[in-house]
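Preliminary data (for renewal application), glycyl-adenosine-5'-phosphate complex.
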Amino acid sequence: MSKLEDIVSLCKRRGFIFPGSDVYGGMAGTWDFGPLGVVLKKNIMDEWWSYFVEHREDIYGVDAAIIMNPKTWVASGHTSTFADPLVECKECKSRFRADKIADGITESVTTEEFLAKHAKCPVCGKENWGPIRKFNMMFVTHVGAVLPDDDKETSEKNVAYLRPETAQGIFTNFKNVVDTIYPDLPFGIAQQGKAFRNEISPRDFILRDRECLQMEIEYFVHPDTWEENFEIMRQAQHDFLENNMGLDSNKIHELDVPAEDRAHYSKRTIDFMFDYPNGEEELMGLAYRTDFDLSNIERESGKSMEYRDKNTGETLIPHVIEPSIGVERLFLAVLSNAYAEEKVEDKDETRIVLKLPENLAPYKFCVSPLLKNKPELVAKAKEVYQLLRQKYTHVTWDDSGNIGKRYRKQDEIGTPKCIVIDFDTLNDDTVTVRDRDTTKQTRIDIDKL
Ligand code: GAP
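Predicted structure:
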């Protein structure tokens, strides 16, 4: 099993992920994606969009604003219930999420239950706690011309929140989609976009961030069919994670979340857990949100959210099945699933290799001349490089160091094939193709690449 530190180090060394605002000493819970990370992230997001939206006839996309009318969060319940249990150490003043520093307690833990666990402060080691307080995780901002010395009323009138989930941008567009597309039930609306949570303790690299990307679908169904649609969506998640993301099915575990641990809107939730380097953690959730959101929007906005079935004439508020996944968590699952350290055959050396599925690898091919100081090899290699770029786009050029070093570098960034132009190429138009996973080399005609 790979270690998280090894993956963090690889990500920085090879330009996948850097700590956010690193140059100023960082900004906890934020991360910046570098040149390779951007491509891998885009490949993951494009695969999801292609699988769930483009290749289906019943799911449509939206891209809603991040800052929404604050009534959204009153209706959704986030203003009153989107809170974690905060506890403060009275000795050193450090603050923690109570359910993360004591075993066997949930988010709804009381002060008495927490104190009975006799947890020690992870910073100073003392046991001297204040009461559990509820901490709302929404980021607050002000919209429009609000000054620091404005009175409380003016300032509160302009309060807005950075969305804590993309889902509400879907629910608030439900009527717009119905009135423009006229979809038959069941149908879904999908969205990819940023979500913000003021996590008390961001942790485990990109697993728990303050700014993250979500990919969510609200799948609207007739209430009588929620169970069968839940099963269909559940299978679709496995298919996507295992076949499109290449995740090892043995590392994915379903957790049927008990009622007391479910989000306030859910009547059933399955968390898809993944074996990350630091242990099993939630990768994504699949929730049955009933008509909770549409009914609340109807009440809060005074606008009807009813749907009229064209075929039966029945009027109803649809129920919702919601698969929701964080891009960063999927990114880390893909990376840790692909990461391997292997002994190099016949050598006293270990190589690090990212065995990424080809559809996700940032580069599909690396082209290089055997020797950098032979102009005829460089010219031929450039010709092959341009040819492949036209065909496959994601092709990289590498003429640094010796050939062994180039292979190591390409292994570390997951490039499936390295193509080397040597002196034989000049005579017979064949090249060496080295396979990332087996390290075997074969000779192939250029026009067969
Ligand atoms: N709309 C439902 C919803 O937001 P959630 O369980 O709070 O439900 C869904 O979040 C998914 O979003 C999680 O399973 C995880 O993949 C991702 N996610 C949530 N909070 C995150 C955070 N702080 N950092 C990274 N990903 C996060």
